[in-house]
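To the structural biology subgroup,

Please find below the input and predicted structure for Tetratricopeptide repeat protein, which we are adding to the shared reference set this quarter. The sequence is reproduced verbatim from the submission form. If anyone notices a discrepancy with their own records, reply to this email rather than editing the shared folder directly, so we keep one authoritative version.
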Amino acid sequence: MNRLEQLRQFIHDDPNDPFNHYALALEYAKSDVETAITQFKALMQNYPDYLPAYYQAGNLFESVGNREQAIAVFEKGIALAKQQQQYKTLRELQSVLDELLYD
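Predicted structure (tokenized):
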């Protein structure tokens, strides 16, 4: 069983764990960016409070040249990090957003 199959099986076994969907999106990002984007969009829609998704999704959007989408994702992640009082993640998201905006 390859890594993608294994991750799909994890989702089948526990479809309500956002980490499984996150791990699948990250794995797709290595070889199939369009599918990874679809996976990240679904993850953020179905599990909007899953904070780790925003950093990775924003970076993925930026890497394919979708600057506006990257900015929107980073901004949503920043708002969520503030709400969740996750200050380390907040700093990381703010840093990449600042770099994107002012570079």
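Summary notes: The chain has a mean pLDDT of 96. The chain is about 80% helix and 0% strand.

Regards,
Lab coordination
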